[in-house]
Amino acid sequence: MLTSNFKICLTGATGGLGSRVLHHLLHTLSIPPSSLIISTQNPSPSPSASDIETRHGDFLAPATLPTAFAGASTLLLVSYPSIAHALRVTTHKNAIDAALRAGVSHIVYTSLAFAGDSRAAVMQAHLEMEAYLKRTCAALEGVRYTIVREGIYCESWALYLGFFDPGKAVGKGERRVVSVPEGADRGVAWVGRDELGEGTARILLRKEEFADQTVLLSGGAAVSIKEVAGIISGVMGWGGKEAVGVEELGKERWLDAMVEMKTGKKEDEETRAFMEKWYTTYPAIGKGELDVVDPLLEMLLGRKLESMEESLRRQLKDVRGARESIGQYAR
Length: 331
Hints:
By secondary structure, this protein is α/β, with parallel strands linked by helices. The protein is globular, with a radius of gyration of 21 Å. Helix 1 crosses helix 6 (193-205) and helix 3 packs parallel to helix 4. It contains 13 helices and 11 strands. The protein is 41% helix and 15% strand.
């Protein structure tokens, strides 16, 4: 039963993960719109959230945030949609500090499923913010946190498979090869974004059980990059010599190949700098950081999770799924 002072403020509610959290709060868990606040950079009426109070809150304009968060007992802080380290740290600190000034008593932060000592570039801002959140809450009486390490989206598979696009490989006789620097044989506990959204929504309603904890929401099985390539071949009907192959090129050859693939040029400084950072993901995979299968998400949802094969079959009904994955996550 909800108490009279129960109010959740959601950030990122128009994004891929946050929109699914909002959907499940409203439609799966039947939370009344009056118990929710949406903080967004560009408030505008939304058919899915027409009865929810929507406020202007811009992570890059910190003066807007205390008013946006006012009256909320819980804040869902969905990580800022950029892999730029300094930008993520600044925006997240702005949000945490503003939430505490606004009287929020519990902050739920969406982190990522890499290890606590990871060297993956994409995880570094998360680790810094996890430490900052823990340190800040520990210094204040009555303020709690929950860090949710969200698993690797099934929908983001193309990024991890060397930006492979099946839509460009449908012709007979096409060379179908996934190029990675290393780590092709180690598993990734892929998980659907919608399932993560529901799990995160359920954690928001059971926050006391997860207070001052770091939890992992993973898929139900670890599936390697090579195995994903095999699933794609099966779904697309590519057998024998037409099947998708996987090659491990090592760091420098892979960087050269990615720069040329993405720009059509042998050298491009900006692209190479981005790919240098993305390369660090693969040693982390090779160390087994992403193959951890935690039962928590299945327990929260009360059902078996969608498998990577089931997800790919759904996604590849339209091969544009790969392009959408690349366009959304490679930023």
